[in-house]
Fold each of these.
Amino acid sequence: MSAPHSSAAVDARALRRKVAWRILPLVVVLYIVSYLDRANVAFAKLRMAEALGFSENVFGFGIGVFFIGYLFLEIPGALLVERWSARKWFARILVTWGFISAAMAFVKTPAQFYWARFFLGVAEAGFFPGIIVYFTHWFVQKDRSRALSGLLVAVPLSLALGAPVSSLLLDVKWFGLEGWQWLFVVEGLPAVILGCLTLFYLTDRPRDAQWLTQDERDHLEGLLAAEALAKEAAGKISVLQALRLPAVWMLVIGVLVGNTGGYALSFWLPTTIKHLSGGSDQMTLFYSGLFYSCGIVSVLVSGQSADRTGDRKWHAAGGMIGTGVFLACSVIPGQSFGAQMIWLCLTAFGAFFWIAPFWTLPSLTLTASAAAVATGLINMGANLAGYLGNHVTGWLRSEGYGETTCLRFLATCFIAGGCIIAFLRLKPKSS
């Protein structure tokens, strides 16, 4: 099924560029909006907590319960992209989460806050796993890895852009709504607009792409079909079989422990910087943006370094351990805030350095069929960490533990996760 009649007529390199420029820009923008809408509660908290009288424990549980909702539709969402329509499913997701995110502006009680965050997680759940599946409809494996690496830049980029925008919105007072309320409305509604755009712009599969020639469609469909047949010939394993493999558990537990620190650090960063600096909300968000800007650089450097050296394991393990060490150094007594901010910028570099190399580890430590099953389990561990890290951090703060204790807890999570990954055994390289 490789469409030999068209291969001579198709410039494969030009076709890859054509597909990438059509698919990736919109998907990256969608993921930027996605991550901002799940994380902007960290920016709004600077005013929202006082306005509503929410404790740190309330925020910790409310931030974390998003990930419980996320787990509900994560796997069904991916199946819908495969068996139904990515275009229609993504449009539904975007419109739903945009309205729910904007509705966060009108919560009044802890219960309303919890339910809004839970349903935001449910609404957004199928998006990232859906993107993973959607990429298999357009990119062969070697191009898919590069596409996913490019997508990861959207995480720090969304927060680096969101911090200054949120800073401006916090001080507005329009039509009887406070700035923190406008933050949710203004940052939530773009998802609704992009959902409508997605319905008309996104293409489900190459065979539906009127912007490709018939030869290009046949050539790309042939390549993808041949790759799928090769994977089927290699055999499949069940979830129960995957659970018997020690490497799977090391990857699941490693990302669960490490991400417990990672998600909590991201969501509590503005609060942490405000406590450490004692400055204004605007200054807090400026320094938060600086933190995430270092993360953008880190993702780019990590990808280039890992590709150049061929190493993935020690990039992941070293990045996690380095993040923990730098974070622990930020709370050494007697430092100025400037020195603490330098340590936090180094923390940001480590926190985003390990992510892309980590997600290549399943294919390096497991067979192809085992890696396919394990990736879903690993992603569930990564999202469960979002609940645990934020809930524990909120509880610590409500119990009166200071910034030093909270950051040491997160640092320990990073170091422990990195140590677990360090013990992974890679598959022998084929000669």
Amino acid sequence: MAWFRTTVIALSGLSLLLLSLTGAVLLGRHFRPILHRHNRPQDSLPALVEKLRSAAVFEERVAAGRAIIAGGSESLVGALDTLCQIGQADAQPVVVPQALQALAVAASDSPAALGEALRSDKTNVRIAAAMVLRQMGPKAQPALSSLTKGLSDENRWVRWSAAEAIGNIGPQAAAVVEAMLPLLDHEDRFTRRRVATALGRIGPAASRAAPRLAKLQKEDHDPAVRKAAETALYLVNLEALAAAAATEASPELQKLLVDLKQDDEYTSVAAANRLRDLGPQAKQAIPALALALRSKHKWVRVAAAEALGAIGSDAQPVLPCLEQAAGEDDAELRSAAEAAKQKIEARRLQN
């Protein structure tokens, strides 16, 4: 019997050994890919820039952008230097728009890094940084100080993109309005036009620019600048225009305008929906609806966009407000604003 017990013990030990070896093999198969991913060398900067330029999937471009930004300021400047090519000082830059778009998404959590790049000694780097910030909308606010300095850049492409980026930040850029006013007298008409447009996009928060915009509208020798000033003047005066419309409107419309401004979301949405149903008859509500596009309540903003679309071509002066809403992250708001823009433009062409 002793030999039998010895044999059983030996076989049991062998079985345990085999089980241990099998488990080790299975664990190795599971962890090998993880260890391989962890230990594989990171892509070089040229490889990341190439992905940013030409990756077939947009998410891969964004991932490359994030990796570039994570590499620090030298990495970002190097990428921008490659992405933007210029000839003479004021020549039109050659860029890959999809690469800048992906970099704008990648930099949404670190816009200050682009602000640093905007101070580069290299003109093409400053141009590319300003162009990326221009696409970031309100998310570019942390770079506002650098963008303000960019307004006085010797290169017109930097000035233009910086002005557009500030306008796209919207009301949160109100602090730099005073610094923008002298540029309404800039010798370059394209700079004057872009700064006027930016002030309009800041909206009522830039109301102190109204006298300068009114002067520009009347006196500038360039018709495009005068038109930009006219539109901007309307947008910075939205609050005064809304108040004036409320005093002249019918009793029904007055009630709806009061309800539209209420802090209660349901009341405001119901008012906007009724204005939508009135269509062109509610054109006096256009300034108030444009203001409602900046409500803290999402569905008020959506309903305001729908109402402006229903009003049609008369709402053309507030198209910049709808363009800003169409660039935001919320899918429902983007869709409503884009649809409203299309309706307004379609009716304008029909008229």
